[in-house]
Design goal:
The complex is a heterotrimer. Chain A has three domains: 298 residues, FAD/NAD(P)-binding domain, CATH 3.50.50; 136 residues, Flavocytochrome C3, Chain A, domain 1 (Alpha-Beta Complex), CATH 3.90.700; 116 residues, Fumarate reductase/succinate dehydrogenase flavoprotein-like, C-terminal domain (Methane Monooxygenase Hydroxylase, Chain G, domain 1), CATH 1.20.58. Chain A is globular, with a radius of gyration of 23 Å. Chain A is of the alpha/beta class. Chain A has 17 helices and 22 strands. Chain B folds into two domains: 100 residues, Ubiquitin-like (UB roll); 152 residues, Alpha-helical ferredoxin (Fumarate Reductase Iron-sulfur Protein, Chain B, domain 2, Orthogonal Bundle). In chain B, a hairpin with a 2-residue loop joins strand 3 and strand 4. In chain B, helix 3 runs antiparallel to helix 6 and helix 6 crosses helix 9. Chain C is mainly α. Classes of the chains: A alpha/beta, B alpha/beta, C mainly alpha. Chains in contact: A-B, B-C. Chains A and B meet through helix 3, helix 4 and helix 10 of A and helix 1, helix 2 and helix 3 of B.
């Protein structure tokens, strides 16, 4: 349903709805969670900031990683698990990585059941493609628009099941009922508060469970592949509700984003370009990735051009080209090349597939990349190389959840997808995101439904809570002549890009924290013009609060972790450290403070039978 | 290099509105959506516009630019002369909410009326087998980003509000065609396409194909084949008899679905 | 009463369209050319003379089946001996029906003659619209039968083209400018006829499993290629058929003589 179906008067009181499970976010994880909760018999609502089917998942290009073994019979969940852990530099929650690898194939087949049309192998099975960090060709895909296929399939399934959808709707607050039991100090989750973006009308959801599936935080950075929705809403909602975040220092910069024209700077160039034969070259025409093979991956990476070339056709007897190292390695390498003055005219490096594959092959395998460059940059990728550079792409960190149920430390609050933390450790492998959404989306929805049914006495939302939430949401209208939220957002993006980017140092991180403090002060005095009906200035003012708290978490954790690992690189501590490698950094927001708290927590220990997987090879 | 772009942007809501004149500083390589965003950030903080990925993948920023239905994020300023005034209005086939944002719920209502895929059981090994050539036609249709520009430009509903009840529009004919061509689907939706979706109202003037930002050949590859399939069932006695008597059609034993009587 | 783009609730914009390009060009050109063709074809069809100049038979009159067919033109006899009007009127219904119900021509005439709509995002002038759900437009659904007929006509025209490799006395192995015109015309007629959407459907489009019918899939792929240029062939073959007829007219009236190559 959309807001325009309610009557437009904004002052006619507050709408109330009762559900068993409220899912916030309608990307891959949110939709999959809603479907699972529905299948378990719960009354479910999906709420999303955009129209249904527009979520950021549509931007995913490469594919869904799942060890189905359609092309390589040797592939199985153990290999996938091992690749995932190694990609995350062993900082992953082992249990999540295990469940993910085990359940992904079935989740993919389910999509097919609901109408997805994946590319096929010659035998008619789902085709799988190569990607960085994966030992075997493993990504189920549809050309280079896999995310679109996934979102459409799940959307059509949700519509088929007649699940209620609240579109263009923002949640600003989660409620807990302090009178109820074991959910920590604040009680269990009792509902959520939000508004129709279209009318500004307020809505209260009463629900014993909430599933967060809000995606990431990329909009805190200047150069990002993420859409406007990625303002860290779920991260911030969870913190304000008393839940904890982990691994927030790990932000993935995708090595290949567009660098020109300015209006699309940061826009993703899929890793499939490299999987399908594309190579990186600097301004001198040199394939520089051979100079950046780290010790950790030496054994499985080709160190000569001849061997790398052989791999595309004969994977058994050749090691992988270094262009297909995990994303963090490639992003750092590109960054170094640009800094050393060997970059392209617009400040990137060259990604060349034109000289290596036929125009037909490129257009067939990479149709949306072809389209994207043609339409937006006037570049024909079958004829010339692309200019690319690192772009903020994904946050590994997120809400700390139980690996099996996806419940946070707050009873009734679940998280799945990018907003959840732990699964990817310090660095996510390409293709593991879409499978993550499906596997943990389903688990979260399923468990939330059962939790809801087991709840004998439904927690309630009090009148005071609603009053406070609506006052907070209206606050930006009360300040007259304050600052424009767009300016503060731009300044925040500048701070994060400059001081908390790919390469970090203690001094810069300290500066960033001070800057963020100042921005927080300014944000308290911002004001918006106009009224509540479809007012982007107001929407941004509310999202800004989320971006600020999430940015503080990233900077704080980045300052604390004195080592370099995955998506966190410290110039002053350039190598990994075993001590830090056994620790998660946990962030919370104490209810009496507006500053983030940080503590150390040991990583869950992998059982011995899984440990052996890392010894054999 | 940068210059001042003259723009006319429709401001208003269902109760009325008008084209407002603006001057916006723009840079080389920018698209119309950039100009709208700059307008929003510097001159009109409450200018309502729907957008998302800014890369032509989500289909949110549909509008009419100089009267032509387009995605704002895929319309480069370099396509226009620097002295030209660019006029941006909301889509004109749907009710306006505010400024450039329209109420597209018509499309979501139509989506609900369409029965989803129902496949044959899996193979014994738990997988399904389909040949690439059998899924390719459907894959073209599934490139649809649901920008609803085809729905907006289709004169059947754009020029005739009263037809919205009986007509599902090009976006959903894509869907009917996709399901009818699905190699493993078990249902026959030809009757539904005709009765509930009103495919007979389409007079194939191809505007949907003309505006599709994904370049899907909506008319040639989906609507006309679907019309031909309806003819098989409804207007071609020979094919109809053949299907009835010999049961040798490639359609298999599909159960037929009908729309509400 | 406001309807269409001025319906209640929609953005209030008075203009029927804000398009600034020359959107009226396509309907205007189409209208002019089609009208000219119809006038020419009517004149020629009712004329009933000057359609045969050995070895050339005008495509408007082929096959010549009526009682008034001039000597040498009735290669298939005259089963309609009783028909005393122009023999073109017996067979012209088939190519005419084929083109009238053709999916491309439908677009062209709905836009340019009926203005429904004149161009994309330009409001149409009609208050009511029911598309092809009622008589007479529902009859367009029989396009495939006209296609079958059009194949027969095209076969006859191919036969006529073969006959143009004779001289005026009927001896084989000769060729003139008319032969070239007939060859081009028949090539375009076939490209248009085989690229028909109904043909595409019949050869393979109606299948669900291309993989089980490799030959039909191949045929469908070829027809699809022609089909992509259906509009172009519709126009070119329209011109070529008129030119072929006019050429015969010029020969038959003695205005020109056919340049012979050998």
């Amino acid at each position: 349903m959309t807001g325009n179906r309610t009557d437009a008067g904004v002052d006619t009181g507050i709408e109330r709805h009762e559900y068993d499970v409220v899912v916030i976010g309608a990307g891959g994880a949110g939709l999959r969670a809603a479907i699972a909760a529905h299948d378990a018999g719960a009354r479910v609502a999906i709420v999303c900031k955009s129209l249904l089917g527009k979520a950021h998942t549509v931007m995913a290009e490469g594919g869904i990683a799942a060890a189905m073994g359609n092309l390589y019979a040797d592939d199985n969940w153990r290999v996938h698990f091992r690749d995932t852990m190694r990609g995350g530099k062993m900082l992953n929650n082992w249990r999540m990585a295990q469940l993910h690898a085990q359940e992904a194939p079935e989740r993919v087949l389910e999509l097919e059941e609901w109408g997805a049309l994946f590319d096929r192998t010659a035998d008619g099975l789902i085709s799988q493609r190569d990607f960085g960090g994966h030992r075997y060709a493993r990504l189920a895909h549809v050309g280079d628009r896999t995310g679109l296929e996934m979102i459409r399939t799940l959307q059509q399934r949700a519509v088929d099941l007649d699940i209620d959808v609240f579109m263009e709707f923002t949640v600003t607050e989660l409620f807990r009922d302090p009178s109820t039991g074991s959910g920590g100090t604040g009680g269990r989750i009792s509902g959520a508060f939000g508004y129709w973006r279209e009318t500004g009308r307020f809505v209260v959801f009463e629900s014993p469970t909430v599933v967060l599936a809000t995606g990431g935080i990329g909009k805190s950075y200047q150069v990002t592949s993420n859409s406007w929705e990625y303002t860290g809403d779920g991260h911030a909602l969870a913190m304000r509700a008393g839940a904890s975040l982990i691994n927030m220092e790990f932000v993935q910069f995708h090595p290949t984003g567009m660098v020109w024209p300015p209006s699309v700077k940061g826009l993703l160039v899929t890793e499939s370009v490299r999987g399908d034969g594309g190579v990186l070259k600097n301004a001198e025409g040199e394939r520089f990735m051979f100079d950046y093979i780290p010790e950790f991956f030496k054994k499985e990476t080709a160190d000569t051009i001849e061997e790398a070339e052989g791999w595309y056709t004969d994977k058994k007897n050749h090691r992988r080209p270094p262009e297909l190292l995990p994303r963090d390695e490639v992003a750092r390498a590109i960054n170094s090349e640009i800094k050393a003055g060997r970059g392209s005219p617009h400040g990137g490096v060259y990604l060349d597939i034109a000289s290596r594959r036929s125009p037909d092959f490129i257009r067939r395998r990479l149709p949306s990349m072809y389209h994207q460059f043609k339409e937006l940059a006037d570049v024909d990728i079958t004829q010339e190389p692309m200019e690319v550079g690192p772009t903020c792409h994904y946050v590994m960190g997120g809400v700390e959840v139980d690996a099996d149920t996806e419940q946070s430390i707050v009873e009734g609050l679940y998280a799945a997808g990018e907003v959840a933390g732990g699964m990817h450790g310090s660095n996510r492998l390409g293709g593991n995101s879409l499978s993550d959404l499906l596997v943990f989306g389903r688990r979260a929805g399923h468990n939330a439904a059962y939790h809801s049914m087991r709840t004998k006495q439904r927690p309630t939302v009090s009148a005071e809570q609603v009053k406070a939430a609506s006052a907070a949401a209206l606050h930006p209208f009360e300040v007259e002549g304050g600052e424009n939220p767009y300016t503060i957002q731009t300044d925040l993006q500048d701070v994060m890009q400059r001081l908390v980017g790919i390469i970090r140092t203690e001094a810069e991180l300290r500066d960033s924290l001070a800057e963020i403090e100042r921005l927080k002060e300014r944000a308290k005095r911002l004001s918006v013009e106009g009224h509540r009906q479809y007012n982007p200035g107001w929407h941004l003012a509310l999202d800004l609060a989320n971006m600020l708290v999430v940015s503080e978490c990233i900077a704080k954790a980045a300052l604390e972790r004195q080592e370099s690992r995955g998506g966190h690189t410290r110039d002053d501590y350039p190598t990994p450290d075993d001590g830090w490698g056994a620790l998660n950094l946990v962030l919370t927001l104490p209810s009496d403070s507006d500053s983030v708290d940080l503590k150390h927590q040991p990583l869950p220990v992998m059982p011995d039978d899984l440990k052996t997987l890392f010894e054999e090879s | 290099m940068g210059y001042n772009l003259k723009m006319r942007v429709w401001r208003g809501d269902a109760s009325g509105g008008e084209l407002g004149d603006y001057n916006v500083a723009v840079e080389e390589g920018e698209v119309v959506l950039d100009a709208i965003h700059r307008l929003q950030a510097t001159q009109a903080g409450d200018l309502a516009v729907r957008w998302n990925c800014k890369a032509g993948k989500c289909g949110s920023c549909s509008a009419e630019i100089n009267g032509r239905p387009r995605l704002m994020c895929m319309t480069r300023l370099s396509d226009f002369d620097e002295s030209e005034t660019i006029t941006v209005t909301p889509m004109r086939a749907f009710p306006v909410i505010r400024d450039l944002v329209t109420d597209v719920s018509y499309n979501y209502e139509k989506a609900k009326q369409l029965p989803a895929a129902r496949l044959t059981p899996r193979d014994p090994d738990g997988k399904r087998r389909m040949k690439q050539e059998d899924v390719e036609r459907g894959q073209e249709f599934r490139k649809c980003i649901e920008c609803f520009l085809c729905q907006n430009t289709c004169h059947v509903v754009r020029d005739h509000e009263d037809n919205k009840q009986a007509f599902a529009g090009p976006r959903f004919f894509l869907r009917y065609a996709e399901l009818d061509m699905h190699p493993l689907d078990t249902h026959d939706r030809r009757a539904l396409a005709q009765e509930a979706a009103g495919i007979g109202m389409c007079n194939i003037t191809k505007c949907c194909t003309e505006v599709c930002p994904e370049g899907i050949k909506i008319t040639d590859n989906a609507i006309i084949p679907m019309k031909e399939r309806v003819v098989d069932r409804k207007y071609d006695p020979v094919v109809w008899l053949g299907e009835k008597i010999f049961k040798r059609s490639d359609r298999g034993t599909r159960s037929e679905e009908h729309g509400p009587a | 009463m406001s309807t269409g783009v001025r319906s209640t609730g929609r953005a209030r914009i008075e203009e029927k369209t804000l398009r600034q390009d020359r959107w009226w060009l396509y309907p205007a050109v189409t209208f002019t050319v089609f009208t000219a063709f119809v006038v020419y074809a009517t004149w020629r069809a009712f004329m009933g003379s000057d359609y045969y100049a050995s070895p050339y038979l005008s495509p408007f009159y082929s096959p010549c089946l009526g009682g008034t067919c001039v000597e040498g033109s009735a290669d298939f006899g005259t089963p309609f001996e009783f028909w005393r009007l122009s023999p073109a009127l017996i067979i012209l219904i088939f190519p005419l029906g084929f083109r009238m119900s053709c999916y491309y021509y439908r677009k062209a005439y709905y836009r340019s003659f009926w203005l429904s709509p004149p161009a994309c995002a330009v409001a149409e002038p009609h208050g009511k619209y029911s598309g092809e759900t009622r008589l007479p437009l529902i009859l367009n659904n029989v396009h495939r039968y006209f296609f079958y007929a059009a194949v027969l006509v095209a076969l006859v025209l191919s036969f006529d083209t073969v006959l143009t490799f004779r001289d005026a006395d009927g001896d084989w192995g000769h060729m003139g400018l008319g032969t070239v015109i007939f060859l081009v015309n028949i090539a375009l007629i076939w490209a248009y006829t085989l690229g028909c959407h109904s043909c595409r459907h019949a050869v393979g489009g109606r299948l669900r499993h291309f993989s089980k019918h490799p030959v039909r899939y191949r045929a469908w792929t070829l027809v699809s290629r022609l089909n992509a240029d259906h509009a172009r062939y519709a126009w070119l073959s329209l011109f070529s058929v008129a030119i072929a007829d006019f050429y015969v007219y010029l020969l038959a009236t003695g205005t020109i003589t056919d340049p012979r190559f050998f």
